[in-house]
Specification:
Layout lengths: L1 H35 L17 H7 L2 H33 L3 H11 L1 H4 L2 H14 L6 H25 L3 H9 L4 H30 L2 H6 L7 H11 L5 H32 L1
Helix pairs in contact: 1-12, 3-7, 3-9, 3-11, 7-9, 8-9, 9-12
Subcellular location: Cell inner membrane; Cell membrane
InterPro entries: MetI-like, MetI-like_sf
Organism: Ferrovibrio xuzhouensis
């Protein structure tokens, strides 16, 4: 018995060490920009000699960077609304189809995430150019919505498969129309998946670079595209500050979702 415990402990250690090394390898470059962002507006230093907020002040005082940030927020919010509304509608429609048709249409809807991004970007550019959508904020919303909607369909569709349909049938038998049934019966049961898919849609749009490079044009550059241009043509010292802000924004979006999920799981265990 003692020998088995020792072997089990050694196995756990043997698995934990490579896992910790891989985790460190993946997160170290991301976390390294945080201390770098507190350096002075000069050469980039991993551990700044004289910590300051110069990079942040330069970023927030720059009209060009603020314009790019505002365009990114606009596009991400519009993408979140479009992808969530159409993704939920598609998931609801798919849930009412037979298994064969559902699998076929599921594959069609997730194609934008399967096809290489550069292929989708070229195709979107050629189509949007005919409709004069290249260089417009609305064009960016449409392109990003196509990329984000598959996540909404998958997340919400997964929640709908575990839905208690007897409650929906009871609501309709009592005279409620489909809209009231959705908002009062279906939505409370899928709200966590809905919130999670909306946050993913926002994050996908906010971080998208390849498609945005083709669609944005000259006057609709988002923050990631402006960062890309800065890396290509000049290494500006405020890049670590921008990266830190993006990381903190992502954490601020995901943390409430994780806390809500933990609370729901705890509530379910106590029932």
């Amino acid at each position: 018995m003692k020998y088995r415990r020792i072997m089990a402990s050694l196995c756990r250690i043997a698995v934990a060490i490579p896992g910790a090394l891989v985790l460190f390898f993946l997160t170290a470059p991301v976390l390294a920009v945080i201390p770098m962002s507190f350096g002075a507006a000069g050469p980039l230093q991993l551990i700044p000699d004289h910590p300051s907020f110069d990079q942040y002040s330069r970023f927030f005082s720059s009209p060009d960077w603020m314009t790019a940030l505002w365009i990114s927020v606009q596009v991400a919010l519009g993408t979140t609304c479009l992808a969530t509304v159409f993704g939920v509608a598609a998931a609801l429609g798919l849930s009412r189809l037979s298994a064969r048709w559902r699998l076929l249409l599921d594959a069609v809807l997730i194609l934008p995430r399967i096809v290489p991004t550069i292929v989708f970007a070229v195709a979107a550019y050629s189509v949007f150019l005919k409709f004069h959508l290249v260089g417009s904020v609305f064009g960016l919303m449409l392109a990003h919505s196509v990329l984000a909607m598959p996540f909404v369909v998958v997340f919400v569709g997964s929640a709908l498969r575990g839905l208690d349909h007897s409650l929906e049938e009871a609501s309709r038998s009592l005279g409620a129309n489909p809209a009231i049934t959705f908002f009062r019966v279906v939505l409370p049961q899928i709200r966590l998946s809905l919130i999670g898919s909306a946050l993913f849609a926002f994050n996908i749009s906010f971080d998208e670079v390849v498609v945005t490079l083709f669609i944005s044009g000259v006057y609709s550059k988002t923050l990631p595209v402006k960062v890309w241009d800065a890396i290509q043509y000049e290494v500006t010292p405020i890049l670590p500050a921008i990266s830190t802000l993006v990381i903190l924004t992502t954490l601020a979006l995901l943390l409430p979702l994780l806390l809500l999920r933990q609370r729901l799981d705890t509530t379910a265990k106590h029932r």
